[in-house]
């Protein structure tokens, strides 16, 4: 099949979160399965150009209809670690993608509406006719709307769309200006409840809802999160729309790139290891302690890697630091805050704990250090308030770090409690799960993990090795998406 991914991110050239990892990892897996895959991305001024090979002109004079006129664009082509990518650069006074950031502008809705329109215009004018368009999140939710309302009448009538929602919290709530800008017009039509009208604001349009309504198939990033979005609160108002379209909605668990996350060949860690040479993991623990000036004693190392925000259960992250230290463990944190008050709070904690030989808080993000922490950690905590899929726990498992997670979203689909899971045999269990978002629940799970490390070290090592044995690569989700593509083509 000929598949085109249209997205606002692709790691490592454009990465703000897990979306970029998924777009790259899935594209690579589909290519390994023999499919032709291309990606269409915005040409941000701040993206990592050092990860693009052979960047050159692909289409110089792309004129994209916009309001009553047209915006002149250039399309560039290059390879990102083997993936063929097209980058759209508009030459407009709006400077849509020359902002020094990927997201966070007041006109984000117009920036990505334009990108959606430009991507389809590029496909039409360059005579590209993919079998499948795979689009992602609210930023490209307008693609299937434009395809089926406009571009199917101009040569793109046979294309099918798979739409993946990575985060229901951000849905692209817009006004009628998007309709006039993109040429959809007819606000009385799109403001109908069955089309794009937001489920709770009759005066707003919802781009994510448009993606759900108009796509041939809709996925989110884990089976349990699909259930949460459909039947619970994690659809953030889209539950009824998902119910109406439940026949084309499913959860497909993300994978991680086992070329990047592989302790047997990780270039960022001083001592490679496998489950058969698990004892070598301790050398990475020693290296991390030396790097961060931590005390080198026989005690467990607990880690947190990820954003510091409300989604990630930041209050429980804070509590886990002091609970681990109180239980005689060490704690290492690597993460950056998304809000100024959270950032100030953790800087206060960093200064308070600065001289503690068993704790280090690294506020920011460092890819090299992240690899070393995964390789050094005995336990990794993921106490999220909600977690559509979660990559941290899967990477931790790959590196033999036992996860302690809250039972939400994809964490339920990937971590199986050693003591209480009744759905998996004991040899498939790989961590500890708690369900209530409070300190006592976190303590109950973290205490069991630390207790096993202190009192039954051989059993703890067995648990860590069982985690390493589970396949959370892109192999299984790649097969599932291939089946979805074949289904909607038929």
Question: Can you characterise this structure?
Answer:
The strands form three sheets. A nine-stranded mixed beta sheet has the order 3-4-5-2-1-6-7-10-11, sandwiched between helices. A six-stranded parallel beta sheet has the order 14-13-12-15-16-17, sandwiched between helices. It has two domains: 2-255 and 475-489, Glycogen Phosphorylase B (Rossmann fold), CATH 3.40.50; 275-469, Rossmann fold (3-Layer(aba) Sandwich), CATH 3.40.50.2000. The chain has 17 helices and 17 strands. With 490 residues, the chain is an alpha/beta fold. Helix 10 runs parallel beside helix 15. The two termini are 13 Å apart. It has helices at 18-32, 108-125, 142-149, 177-182, 187-190, 207-214, 223-231, 239-244, 281-292, 314-326, 340-352, 367-376, 392-398, 409-414, 439-455, 457-469, 475-489, and strands spanning 2-6, 36-42, 52-66, 69-80, 83-91, 132-136, 160-165, 173-174, 205-206, 217-220, 249-251, 301-305, 330-335, 359-363, 379-382, 402-406, 432-434.
Which assembly state applies to the chains in this document?
single chain
| Arrangement of strands in the largest sheet | 3-4-5-2-1-6-7-10-11
Strand content: 15-25%
CATH topology of the largest domain: Rossmann fold
Query: Could you tell me the number of beta strands?
Result: 17
The geometry reads as globular
Low-confidence stretches: none
What class do helices, strands and sheet pairing give? alpha/beta
- Separate helix tally: 17
| Number of domain modules | 2
Task: Output the CATH class name of the largest domain.
Answer: Alpha Beta
Quick one: biggest sheet? 9 strands, mixed
Through-space gap between termini: 13 Å
* Helical fraction: 25-40%
């Amino acid at each position: 099949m000929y598949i085109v991914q249209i997205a606002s991110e692709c790691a490592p050239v454009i990465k703000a979160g897990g979306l970029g990892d998924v777009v790259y990892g899935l594209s690579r897996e589909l290519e390994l399965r023999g499919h032709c895959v291309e990606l269409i991305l915005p040409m941000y001024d701040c993206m990592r150009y050092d990860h693009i090979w052979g960047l050159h002109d692909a289409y110089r004079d792309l004129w994209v209809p916009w309001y009553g006129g047209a915006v002149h664009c250039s399309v560039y082509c290059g390879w990102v670690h083997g993936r063929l990518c097209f980058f759209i650069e508009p030459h407009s006074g709006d400077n849509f993608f020359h902002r020094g950031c990927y997201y966070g502008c007041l006109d984000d809705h117009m920036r990505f509406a334009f990108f959606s329109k430009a991507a389809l215009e590029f496909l039409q004018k360059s005579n590209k006719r993919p079998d499948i368009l795979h689009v992602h999140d609210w930023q490209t939710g307008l693609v299937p709307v434009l395809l089926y309302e406009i571009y199917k009448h101009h040569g793109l009538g046979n294309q099918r769309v798979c739409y993946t929602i990575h985060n229901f919290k951000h849905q692209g709530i817009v006004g009628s200006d998007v309709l006039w800008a993109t040429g959809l017009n007819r606000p009385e039509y799109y403001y109908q409840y069955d089309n794009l009208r937001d489920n709770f604001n009759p005066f707003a349009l919802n781009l994510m809802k448009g993606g759900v309504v108009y796509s041939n198939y809709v996925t989110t990033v884990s089976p349990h999160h699909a259930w949460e979005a459909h039947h619970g609160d994690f659809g953030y108002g889209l539950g009824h729309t998902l119910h109406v379209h439940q026949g084309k909605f499913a959860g497909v668990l993300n994978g991680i790139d086992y070329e990047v996350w592989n302790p047997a060949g990780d270039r960022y860690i001083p001592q490679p290891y496998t489950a058969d040479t698990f004892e070598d993991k301790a050398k990475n623990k020693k290296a991390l302690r030396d790097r961060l000036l931590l005390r080198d004693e026989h005690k467990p190392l607990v880690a947190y890697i990820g954003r510091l925000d409300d989604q990630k259960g930041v209050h429980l992250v804070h509590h886990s630091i002091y609970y681990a230290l109180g239980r005689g463990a060490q704690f290492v944190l690597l993460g950056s805050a998304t809000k100024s008050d959270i950032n100030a709070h953790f800087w206060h904690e960093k200064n308070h704990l600065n001289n503690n030989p068993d704790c280090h808080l690294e506020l920011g993000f460092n890819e090299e250090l992240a690899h070393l922490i995964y390789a050094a950690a005995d336990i990794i905590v993921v106490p999220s308030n909600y977690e559509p899929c979660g990559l941290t726990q899967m990477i931790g498992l790959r590196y033999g770090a036992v996860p302690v997670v809250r039972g939400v979203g994809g964490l339920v689909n990937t971590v199986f409690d050693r003591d209480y899971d009744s759905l998996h045999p004991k040899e498939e269990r790989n961590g500890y799960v708690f369900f209530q978002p409070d300190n006592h629940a976190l303590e109950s799970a973290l205490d069991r993990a630390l207790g096993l490390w202190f009192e039954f070290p051989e059993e703890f090592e067995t648990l860590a090795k069982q985690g390493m044995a589970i396949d959370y690569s892109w192999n299984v989700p790649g097969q599932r998406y291939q089946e979805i593509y074949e289904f909607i083509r038929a």
